[in-house]
Amino acid sequence: MTLPQSRALLTAVPGPRSLELAARRAQAVSTGVSSTFGVYVARAGGGIVEDVDGNRFVDLGSGIAVTSVGASAPGVVAAVGTQAADFTHTCFMISPYEEYVAVCEALARLTPGDHEKRSVLVNSGAEAVENAVKVARRATGRDAVLVLDHAYHGRTNLTLAMTAKAMPYKTGFGPFAGEVYRVPASYPLRDPDGMTGEQAAARAIATAERQVGADRVAALVVEPVLGEGGFVVPAPGFLPGLAEWAAAHGIVLVADEVQTGFCRTGAMFACEHEGVVPDLVTTAKGIAGGLPLAGVTGRAELMDAVHAGGLGGTFGGNPVACAAALAAIEAFERDDLAGAARAIEARVRPRLEALGAPAVGEVRGRGAMLAVELVRPGSLDPDPAAAREVVRRCAEQGVLVLTCGSWGNVVRLLPPLVIGDELLDDALGVLENALLAV
Ligand SMILES: Cc1ncc(COP(=O)(O)O)c(C=O)c1O
Question: Cross-referenced PROSITE patterns, in alphabetical order (predicted)?
Fold first, then answer.
């Protein structure tokens, strides 16, 4: 890590050089693309992002769960350099190469279940989800896709149909792909008191059977922990209940592990916490230490049900991204980053739970995917303004945290799994003050 692992504020936030860039941006970049923070990045390393004015921020967002191995992790940087010097692109569909095969071998080894597996590599999480649905439809000959309330699966037309939240993702962009049916998720804070995971699964299944019928369903796509929907951990028994029903009806269970995968929740994949073995797993984000790469991995008989040429894309499984993924995967395993995620939870959760801030409705999450849902004190009414204010106060003090949630009222923590204790404690202190102040 070449950057000092400490906060430093040299100017106002944003500083003068960031403000200059913001002015240029306004003339060049669509207003449809927004940024949480107004500071422009010059460098990043480990758990620190340094802006163009020399301010150093503690990064508790990891570029939305991407730089789990740390920003610019040395192994990733070296692998990228070596691969870029060898060749940057040939297109795997034209002239294949070992790095793609090696990433698929690693995915087969690391994803849940010891059945025979195959993979396809693509460029983004949304593209992975699209391809999982293609595979499920081709393999089952059925059309319907089941998704959960509060789900987020991406911004392409099909994945927008699968995503729950209208603003900002869907509004004005329809019509969306058809044959997508939404069923209730397990959301312990907001479900009826005492509802078990099994009961929440039965509720979802009853909705699916009423709306579409199990025999028409190709795929049931679930995030094992709802990501953009608010870091909601389902009640125990919910995922196994859905998995059992899917298996009984020949429905392909797709675990969307784009955000939860690669050690983020304290296991290599979040499904492992409940012993669920999905038929297909989608991965992206943390897979390649910051390079764009995504994959669909699953049962060989499903993945190989697709005709030759049915899957692919010009850039899918780019060799530089694959080399980065192999280096990142080496770090996940060698450095026990799943253990690191559990250690982060053990450090952060008790502090947030003990805080007693009136706006905190719930502290939840798994591993280093932790969140605080903010509500109007004494109620469950979501308080998105409080969440925005926490983010603003933290940024002003040199700490980057993100929001999520169907109502935008959840502050989420996604630190790099390599973050040092001292840096984490320092950032937590800032977050605690912000939570107490709203
Ligand atoms: C669970 C999940 N699926 C899919 C996506 C879409 O990934 P991408 O932004 O790489 O298309 C995301 C992104 O946040 C996600 O969290």
Answer: AA_TRANSFER_CLASS_3 (PS00600)
Domain closes at, from 279, 305, 334: 334
CA distance 92 to 427: 43
pLDDT of residue 2: 77
Distance 150 CA to ligand 1 centre (A): 13
Q: Residue 9: inside a domain, yes or no? A: no
**The two structure tokens encoding residue 408:** 């935008």
Residues with CB under 6 A from ligand 1: 64, 124-126, 129, 152-154, 223, 227-228, 256, 258-259, 284
DSSP H or E stretch at residue 217: strand 217-222
The pLDDT value recorded for residue 1 is: 55
Residue 86: enclosing H or E segment and its boundaries?
helix 74-86
CA 334 / ligand 1 centre spacing (Å):
26
Q: What is the mean pLDDT of each run of 10 residues along the chain (438 residues)?
A: 91 97 98 97 98 98 98 98 98 98 99 98 98 98 98 98 98 98 98 98 98 98 98 98 98 99 98 98 98 98 98 98 98 98 98 96 98 97 98 98 98 98 98 98
Q: Cβ(185)–Cβ(232) under 8 Å? A: yes
Give the predicted TM-score (pTM) of the model.
0.98
Domain CATH number, residue 392: 3.90.1150.10
Atom of ligand 1 nearest to the CA of 260: 1
Residue position matching structure tokens 């279940």: 113
